[in-house]
Amino acid sequence: MASALCCTFTTQCKRVCLSCQSTQYNGGYPNNLVRVPVIILECLLSNASVGNHCLIVSLQIGEKSLFTKELENALERNEVDLVVHSLKDLPTTLPPGFTIGAVLKRENPFDAVVLHPKNAGKTLDTLPENSVIGTSSLRRAAQLKKRFPHLDFKDIRGNLNTRLKKLDEKDDFAAIILAAAGLKRMGWESRISQILSPDDCMYAVGQGALAVEVRARDTDILEMVSVLHDSDTVLRCIAERAFLRHLEGGCSVPVAVYTEVKDSQLYLTGAVYSLDGSDSLKETMQTAPAHHPFIQTQLFGVTASKISGPAQDGAERLGIDLANLLLSKGAKEILTVARQLNDAR
């Protein structure tokens, strides 16, 4: 997540300008967007996201919109008509007047281990005692500290290029943890040494999915991008975002999820963690989404008029019910202590 990529689309009816968070998507822009009926594509680079200027201070728990505000400002000023985000970077409550017009088919949502070249062939299990692992995520650190107590986890910041450079050119880290989807989009799958299973590390809400944010009043744009929606991804992400919102979480809280659609059932596993992973709660629930009439509605920032309204409602209810279950078992207390400890660092 570095600079923004700005693309200008000219259609038969109007000029459409797109902005997205990464300058280095393999191929120049998210490949699924070629399904939008465009005639001309013109790409420009804008300034780096503010989140990557803060290279020393780790992300605060609950910090919202850190990577999105600059792009939304351009959307508000009518400089662009679409903004493409990693969905995990979008808060569950969008600014007034904005909506997610499309959620693209999810890439691999799991986290990946990228090893220092000297550790080729190893896994997190086989790395030496006290090996230093770099991660910018409280969620990853909390889970992995519990799962791999022989390792030492430290902050690493910057875009993917910067993090890989820090890994390769110095001896500070034995490995770093990155989203597998981000590495794939950059064309760097060959750097992946290990994919972490849900037993090792569940992923962030929305991880692996791209979201197209638009102005809610722009019905032509909403209709144009609606063809990009992937129904299973939408339902999974609505459930995840409902879960996070009901926990009163933000983009950077130690909350993790795992969802799947299997045998007509939507499964959601959610968990909350203390910063060191020593205290946690984890539960799983499921629902059978009903596929009935299409309605135009917005749930947790997502407008999906071509996906069954009752199915979306069922996904939302699943996320809320799971959050309530964890809250009844003490999730609020775990997250409150985590916030306090992180603020004191």
TrEMBL record:
Q: Which domain of life is it from?
A: Eukaryota
GO BP terms in the entry: protoporphyrinogen IX biosynthetic process
* Annotated metabolic or biological route of this protein: Porphyrin-containing compound metabolism; protoporphyrin-IX biosynthesis; coproporphyrinogen-III from 5-aminolevulinate: step 2/4
Top enzyme class: transferase
Co-factor(s): dipyrromethane
Task: Recite the UniProt keywords alphabetically.
Answer: Porphyrin biosynthesis, Transferase
SUPFAM superfamilies, per this entry? Answer: Periplasmic binding protein-like II (SSF53850), Porphobilinogen deaminase (hydroxymethylbilane synthase), C-terminal domain (SSF54782)
Q: Does the keyword Transferase apply?
A: yes
Return the protein name.
hydroxymethylbilane synthase
Q: Which organism is this entry from?
A: Myripristis murdjan (pinecone soldierfish)
What lineage, starting at the top, does this entry show?
A: Eukaryota, Metazoa, Chordata, Craniata, Vertebrata
